[in-house]
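Posted in: Structural Biology > Protein-Ligand Complexes

Title: Requesting predicted complex, 1-O-phosphono-beta-D-fructopyranose in pocket

I'd be grateful if someone could produce the 3D structure tokens for the following input. Sequence and ligand are given below.
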Amino acid sequence: KALADTIEAVLEVGFSPTLFGADAASRLAEVEGVQILACGTSYYAGLTAKYWIEALTGLPCNVEIASEYRYRDAWAHPKYLIVTISQSGETLDTMEALKRARELGHAHALSICNVRESAIPRASDLVFYTRAGVEIGVASTKAFTTQLVALFTLAGTLAKIRGRISAEDEAAYLEELRALPGSVQHALNLEPQIHAWAQSFAAKQNALFLGRGLHYPIALEGALKLKEITYIHAEAYPAGELKHGPLALVDEAMPVVVIAPNDSLLEKVKSNMQEVRARGGELFVFADADSHFTDSEGVHVIRTPRHVGILSPIVHSIPVQLLAYHAALARGTDVDKPRNLAKSVTV
Ligand code: F1P
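-- Reply #1 --
Done. Output follows.
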């Protein structure tokens, strides 16, 4: 519902600056680059957005963890748009990074946030409020998918302002957004199969998550969720990076989750999967319905909906979050209140 409501708000006006505030049109028209600042899951939304922004707008886009950026003398430019992403709008590191960006000379700041009138949107010039409302649990879930819709909309809006997409392109992207809740529902319907996988994950000590391109941040999100709510040690890598180190970790005891959408990188991902199987690693693959994967020895496959193109990371975030959720239930941990974590990190 959070996702459908956020998409509905976008569909009402299309890729329009009005979605971001009263003087958004003039501010966004000036933008020559984008600097994204965020923490945790929100940072992964930013990493995904980098692909969309650079591909659609041709603008450079940097993404940095706010707790690092706030303490350094970063490169800055008055015509770069600062984009902060925060579910709560109160995360201190993100707030301080925004202040730092202002000190360094960035003129325009846009906040993507769930919570109206929280600190970060109040300190920003432009705001997109997702329609996700407040997260019940500590770990962000619906915030992530709705942040991604907001960021895709920002990419589309900047592209439109810069004359990089035609009216037909815009209509096609909006059509993809309109169809998204149906694909996400399909992904949610995979719950029984994911529940079955989660039973074996619950007994593991470690897990590795792999993705490529737009789906590398989704591998990061899957690993973070597993860490946060099950306390299983999980790492995520771009699949092409396996041979540069993490392959040394792979043996029969290492489950490897692969985000394998039916996109232009699929053949590359398949060869990375072979590297894992050759070392005895057990593969858990999320593949799209329209690709040709079947279960084989040591390879388990769950089919997400038909490939949805550029919005695919939003669909693929659902099964990795469900996997962590069911593994947590199987281990008996508190999914809403993980140990050592706070809902808003304000220190
Ligand atoms: C950032 C964040 C969450 C994470 C956990 C701790 O919060 O790192 O992504 O799941 O809840 O805080 P926010 O800035 O998005 O509110």
